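Appendix C. Worked example: TRI36 ligase
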Amino acid sequence: KVAIKGIERELICPACKELFTHPLILPCQHNICHKCVKEILFAFEDSFADGGSESSNQSSPRIRISASSMDRIDRINRSGIKRNSLTPRSTLFPCPSCQRDIDLGERGINGLFRNFTLETIVERYRQAARAAIAIMCDFCKPPPQESTKSCMDCSASYCNECFKIHHPWGTVKAQHEYVGPTTNFRPKILMCPEHEMERVNMYCEICRRPVCHLCKLGGGHANHRVTTMSTAYKTLKEKLSKDIEYLISKESQVKAHITQLDLLLKETECNSERAKQEASQSFEKLYHVLEEKKSAALRAIETSKNIRLEKLQTQVEEYQGLLENNGLVGYAQEVLKETDPSCFVQTAKQLHVRIQKATESLTSFRPAAETTFEDFVVDTAKQEDILGDLSFHSNGLEIPEINEEQSRMYNKALISWECPGKTDSADIYILEYHKLNKEEENVTWQKTEVCGKSKVLSDLDDDSSYAFRVRGYKGSISSPWSQEVIMRTPPAPVFSFLFDDKCGYNNEHLQLNPRRTSVESRAGFPLLLGSERLQIGCYTTLDYIIGDTGIAKGKHFWAFSVEAYSYLVKVGVVPSNKIQKLFHNTHDVTSPRYEQDSGHDSGSEDAFFDSSQPCTLVTLGMNKFFIPATPAAPKDPASRILPLPSCLGICLDCDRGRVGFYDAGRMKCLYECEVDCSGLMYPAFALMGGAAVHLEEAVTAKYREYHDNI
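Step 2, the predicted output written as structure tokens:
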């Protein structure tokens, strides 16, 4: 028997936080319950079905799944989650212990070994914890008797009488292996999960797992270094025994560390209380400042109110005096009763002036004071933002910087950042962004929490500029915000296509990669043979290639990059009704029409060349971008030559009949012209000499969104 006391934490599943039940060994060597694996995979699949939501907690307690959902779980076990199109049969599982996505291979859960050793230890712990609870016989008639032994072959427990009945002497069952009463039944022979009829008899030192001879002969361990099971058992047992002996010999050192940790626990408690007091004092100061400001504001409003009420009340009294038999009018009526002319004149002169002023006030009535208090509105927007950012700032937490070179704006936005010291001192990052709009006065930042150093955003509007900033958090301590970076989204939804390897593709001059996302012009021996007959002043041939998908309507954008060493590349669009003309319009290198001394006027020849083009293309080459010579273009040829951007984009608007050529890094239009969109429009490319074009890859939902050590 082994000592059970004090090992509870080693027997707890990291997912359900309960004792292990049928534990499985993951490729990362962590253990997890068989049921928990199914439930986490089920939740993981739902997170992808909801558009890549990250709201699911990988270490949450068990999710209660209805019986109708079990079929979906079994389907996941058989086929796996297809996270990556390049490895469609790969099953990724988020390990709750190391927080990494673990590849379970083609067989998924069915390819994992059951940890019978751990299961036995858990059962011993259970028995020690419930020693007073007896294991009853499985075959007694009610009431059942207490069992005395358990059969490992029958996976059942028996009392003495039932054991004799079901295992009679002289039969095969009499040879069964029996042990003391237990509920943990394990097979005698460990079978291979990939080859279910074969027992494991070797140990793969590369994958660190038992394998059978078929795995070594033609399976996934064919080229791996393996050893016999007995040798592995002996070696690992010796290593484990030595390590255990070493730890036992260091018991005094461990106790010293425990004592030190106990002191650190007490010190942490004291320091936390001190920090709470300091934080409370800081907030009390803020409360005091706010209370003073509040009292001052209320006093100012009250003073202004009293002054205004006094003015209005005086004005009310003045107007009440204009009423009959009241105030000024009543006094004037009494003066009119005076019969002595000299006395009347003496009093009426001053009274008449007052009556005239009262009459004028009636014609131009104006309140003596304003009733609104608009001047007393307290604007706290900036203060609210500052208080919203109030946190524990630390000089040790570095300010992250958004890496504009690694960040991308395409079908989705990929925002990537790094720390200047190249250390990841923050636990999580908060990425905020907002759309730049001149009409909006108050900016509302959208916030998202990220565990890594990059984030993919998919809810941005086309043809819009956005500001981004990021800050790091370590517990409740945060770094200041990074410098804001402004990036612009593509002018239209991204159009996805591959190079067409069938329609007009010249495999002698052009070479496609297997994924059909890159094309390269090979200026090799075939072109050299074709140039054997060339004389001076002759044009050479352009090799065309188009996209495999056409556009019928709407506005679309796609991006690509051209290698800096490329000699000549043309890019643009071609309508479907002119594709055949495009591939049959290549220039004959021996035709005298293209010789400089053919007698043709150069101007008329250029006009014929321009009018005969079946598609709309711009020229790139020698690390330059050439704006076509049009009436609206600058007359100076040097001003029509621009540096070649690292990434180019084309925006086709079929509804307006316009095509634009963009610097895709800054989303700036370099050139725009009209185009005939009467038919299906296809992306078109032409290469000559040494040149290469690479289509921009789409940003996926989980692109670069994992830790650097995964």
